[in-house]
Amino acid sequence: MSLIVQKYGGTSVGSVDRIKAVAERVARGRQAGRKMVVVVSAMAGETNRLFKLASELSDTPDLRETDALVSTGEQVSAALLSIRLQSLGVPAISFVADQLKIATDSNHGRARIKSVECDRVVKELERGRIVVVAGYQGVDANGNITTLGRGASDLTAVALAAALKADACEIYTDVDGVYTADPNLCPRARKLRRVSYDEMLEMAALGAKVLQGRSVELARRYNVPLVVLSSFSDSEGTWVGKEDRSMEDVLVSGVTLDQNQSKITIAGVEDSPGLAAKIFGPIAAAGIVIDMIIQNASADGHTDMTFTVARDDLKRALELMRSIAADIGAAGVRHEAQVAKVSIVGVGMRTHAGVAAKMFNVLAAERINIEMIATSEIKVSVVVNSKYGELAMRSLHDAFVNGGAAVSSAETV
Ligand code: ADP
Ligand code: ASP
Ligand code: MG
């Protein structure tokens, strides 16, 4: 008998009617002879609503209490789905993370999973029940409720699929697969039949929120077969799995846009050894992830350093930068609260030259100024003014995906 972990996102459980539809889909799976574990998100908008309530009561709500609060949305959905399944005559039982033991560290708001205990799940599955699990949450060694980061019900699902050695992990959402770009922003985006773990990981990290980044990382590590499907239709989804040879024939698999980035410049710093360590050491110690960095050419022994951070981290990063700037005698700190990061991703880039050059040409033709550039083996990212983000994404999509992958071998990156 096959064992499947399914995950339903916020929109998919966003109303009583949607929960009824999910219960029917789950019931059909069971009729087809599958054992099923179902992970649910909070109803659409609920997690944001809970965060807002906390912020109305305090400027700096305590992180432990915030997790206790925002994790409740998932508990509600899990119980509601279980109630509906039972009313259809399908035996079901819901659990929160504490009851199963999805153990995490104590990093509230972004906790990492340490272990997943499945004994209770296995027992219930053997009794013929559907096991419904509240996503997004864990419990630390002291019994405190933690959350795993925004969008992390995907991670709960993959972690359970890995621990249970499930035959597949099905992620049901409001689009019917992974597209070459966000279909809600790019009307010409096409659905991918398959995408490699590496490409999906880059796409998720670069703004394609259809899958949460760490969930893809975990799926890759434990070889969990992952498929993205729509809870609104029965169309074939997108498989995320190991790379195979034919994937390299495609130059660019996806174009992403991330509008949640900020840019900080620390100006007029003395260009001497140890400078970068002085600036970025405290940032790293504060757990702030820095993405792109550029250092301007030195003039008069002084230079500017510019880098990007997630917008959620901007306030803390700026506070740190201002105190570092004062310490090291820098001329000042400037920032732009919102910039757009636009990226092209594809394993085919490993074997083709000229991709970055073509990307820059496409943006130049639209007269879009590139502020920063970063590359890896399978991606090229640029930062542009946020008002041109969507235009940049669509132009790149037209050039690389709809327009084919004509990169002359004479061009070089
Ligand atoms: P859920 O609540 O089900 O977890 P999310 O809102 O987290 O759903 O993710 C689904 C959304 O991801 C889609 O509605 C779509 O706008 C967005 N998205 C961004 N990039 C892509 C992409 N390349 N392919 C498909 N969807 C994408
Ligand atoms: N409800 C959580 C969020 O909104 C987790 C999730 O939906 O995956 O971030
Ligand atoms: Mg999501």
What does this structure look like?
By secondary structure, the chain is α/β, with parallel strands linked by helices. It has a domain at 3-174: Carbamate kinase. Helices cover 35% and strands 27% of the residues. It contains 13 helices and 18 strands. The chain has helices spanning 16-31, 46-57, 63-70, 72-87, 97-100, 119-126, 153-164, 197-205, 213-222, 275-285, 314-328, 355-365, 389-402, and strands at residues 3-8, 35-40, 92-95, 102-104, 113-116, 130-134, 137-139, 145-147, 168-173, 194-196, 226-230, 238-241, 254-270, 290-295, 302-310, 332-345, 372-376, 379-385. The strands form four sheets. It has an eight-stranded mixed sheet, with helices on both faces. A six-stranded antiparallel sheet has the order 14-15-13-16-18-17. A hairpin with an 8-residue loop joins strand 4 and strand 5. Helix 1 crosses helix 4 and helix 8 packs antiparallel against helix 9. It is globular. Mean pLDDT is 93; it is low at 405-413. The structure holds adenosine-5'-diphosphate (ADP), aspartic acid and magnesium ion. The site of adenosine-5'-diphosphate (ADP) has 19 residues, from loops.
List the helices and strands and how they pair.
Blueprint: E1 3-8, H1 16-31, E2 35-40, H2 46-57, H3 63-70, H4 72-87, E3 92-95, H5 97-100, E4 102-104, E5 113-116, H6 119-126, E6 130-134, E7 137-139, E8 145-147, H7 153-164, E9 168-173, E10 194-196, H8 197-205, H9 213-222, E11 226-230, E12 238-241, E13 254-270, H10 275-285, E14 290-295, E15 302-310, H11 314-328, E16 332-345, H12 355-365, E17 372-376, E18 379-385, H13 389-402
Parallel strand pairs: 1-2, 1-9, 2-6, 3-6, 9-11, 10-12
Antiparallel strand pairs: 4-5, 7-8, 11-12, 13-15, 13-16, 14-15, 16-18, 17-18
Magnesium ion (MG) binds at residues 9, 151, 154, 209.
